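B., you asked whether I could sanity-check this one before it goes into the benchmark set. Here's the sequence:
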Amino acid sequence: MKLRRADMIIKRIFTPVILFILFSLGSLSMKGEENVTEEEKKPLVSDVRITGMIDNTHVLYSGSDNPKDSLSRLLNIFYYDQFRHFQDPRAPYFMFMSKKGDLALGVGGQVKIRGYFDWNGSIPTVGFIPYDIPIPKDPTSMRALSASPSGTGLFFTLLGNNKLLGNFMAYFQADFSGYNNRGFRIKKAYITIKEWTAGYAVSTFEDTQAEPSTVDGAGPNGINSRKNVLVRYFKSFKKHWAAAGSVEFPSESISADGIHTASCTPYIPDFAAFIQYQWDNASSHLRLSGLLRTLVYRDLVKGQNHNITGWGVQLSTVINPTPSMNLFGIISTGRGHASYTTDLGNGDFDLIPVPDKEGQLYAPWAAGLVLGVQYYFTPKIFSNIAFSEQTYYPKRNPKDTYYRYGLYAVGNVFWDITPRLELGLEYLHGKRMNFNGESGSADRIMAMFMVSF
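And here's what the prediction gave me:
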């Protein structure tokens, strides 16, 4: 059983790792800076799209001689952010500027409506999450037609630059994606000053730039996606390198039954870091990320508390082989990091019971994979195709209804009718496999209408 499981891990994880490393090195060798072709000098189409968004933001008041140029410099801080997600709203349509042009304040938001139709089995959530696929299929819920305003929200952003603080940004975002997908909740709240970020933000362990764009708010099931209250340091150096490290406040998902085991209040922070090699003005990169955490539980049988070490490692990349194409890839694995993943994060898999040993918990192994390609037909029309998998490896095959792995496939097209109005159409296919051999699948067509202001 152990040899078979090890063989599965090698096939599912290390083979794609080798392929991505070779592909990345091949891309680097083809893009030598001494022999840059005319084709390579062309701007990325994704950058042209962002330029259009920046140009569509207007100065409401300014005493600056060149308010538009000043605003463009500040908005580059907003859009060209290593931790910005595709789902994040665009800059406000109107922004107040100081007389010197070194400070801008904006209040913006977006109205986002997603409608979807499920067939061949439906998922009872707005997010297309393979973990939630019913097994066996419910004959009363084989098809579903629904819509949701989740993702609609407001945000405040303050952008500036001065001699003391350098570049800085304060950001607050809240949207209607909480309880029943309509509850108003905080999405992000942080301050960035030079290389430092403090607040509620995307975990340093997540590589948002290597994730394909989806209409589905949940995104591929193989990614590590989480927000924590954190303190982070991020630094670019020597042109092609960047690194980051953070201390993040912990949150655990432990399978404690309250009879033999109990979860304890976490008191040791999570630590996340990455080292990144980047090129093409940081639009392409190869990143190695790590996560270290301490999971605490109580053995009620022996009356003892225990600290279990959890960890995660991730290799991720985004590559621009042509100005119109982006390639994405994420491969991750670890123990005790399940709550950072999109699929396993829906259960209590950070720590689970040791087989046949009452009162003991351990951190199970899990692995995720995402492969995708994005193509821009024009700066206003682009498409994504991606495949993702999340796999769970406990010490012993439980041979029951426990989740074993989930598959996620997506194909979509987005159309920016204007810089403020976007339509999206997407096809999704998902599959869940349990340890007892039973499986379930679901298909979904999803459409999105979004207005940004």
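One thing to flag: The first strand starts at residue 58 and ends at 61. Otherwise nothing jumped out at me.
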